[in-house]
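User: My instructor asked us to take a sequence, write out its structure as tokens, and then describe one feature of it. I'm not sure where to start. Here is the sequence I was given:
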Amino acid sequence: MAKMTRNTGLLMIPGPTPLADEVYDALGSEMFSFADPRFAQVFREALAMTQDMLGNPEEVYIIPGSGLFAMEIALTNCVQPGEKILIINQGYFGDRFSQIANAYGIEYEEVKAEWGTRVDPQEVAQALAKGGFKAVTLTHVDTSVGVLADFATLIPLIKESGSLLIVDGVCATAAVEESFTKGYGANKANIDVLLTAGQKAIGCPPGLAIVAFSPDALAARAAMPKIPAYFGDINNWRIVMKEPGRAFGTPPVSMINAYHAALKLVYQEGLEVRYQRHERYGKAMRAALRALGLTVLAGEEVTAPTISCVLYPEGIVDAEFRKALAAKGMMIAGAMSRMSGKAFRIGHMGSTTPQMLEQAIALLGETLNEMGFSADGATAVAVLQAKLFC
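Assistant: Let's start with the prediction itself. The structure tokens for your sequence are:
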């Protein structure tokens, strides 16, 4: 594992995640001109590693911005105002796609799941049977609820309909496999657009919007004479991605240095090993949370390896609980939207270490007891350790 000596607090929110020392070093390295050959080489390597990590999409774009901006780039470069999309909505970030569609005059329908569950594939198939959808959006892991989408079932359904598939991978990339060439389901269907960001499982600071496109998605953009965007138009960024050192907007030099360093750590660990580690961490954390007497919102069969959304026991007040943990140096996140005040969210991804997970479970148990809920922290830590190292 990478060294983590500069993380003095316990950052357990679902992004940004703790940074490895190598990433801090890259952030603090010499400032280069974007045209400097040394920086151009770093950018080229970052693009190549991203390409490989995502199973060789046709084109990859690394643009200043957040995951939300990546959602805008993905949607506006594939779908014109007045065209229609289907949103597969399994939480708050499914709602975000509808908000973006409204902002750009894109029509949409939704198939929604109860928070903490997956959508019914039959409902998706019935919606797709209506036809007329230019694209379908699917959030791989919804950060609000910790639900992992069923790629093997949904991707073939979507692609059989003739629609483009846009995947939000923000809370999954580098922790759960996402591939443009692997093929999903019996008919080996593929992703068309994947959007993500660096601040979660990749282990980079926030600030980069990362979007990858298939040939079909690029053909859709080529057929659009213009789009309602300038900074987010991939046609304006293509020259930078093909020839790092050129400029459209000034590249975020320090952030790309950090992203490059984070990806090198991903590859030092190995993608398959990393996927298995996140699966193990997720199962261990959920088992430990249950040993504390807590309930994870998403059932074991649908929950993600990167984040857990945890229901509060009766009598525990959200703001007071998180404030008490913060006073001990541990940060967790509140729940979002309709779950606000009813649950907390804890991340277990990226460069997070077993020691951080053990400390987190111990502090959760300690704080629950202080607030009148009986929790056996020692047993929960033992459960965690048994699952982590089995």
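For the description part of your assignment, you could build on this observation: The chain is about 40% helix and 15% strand. Try explaining in your own words what that tells you about the chain.
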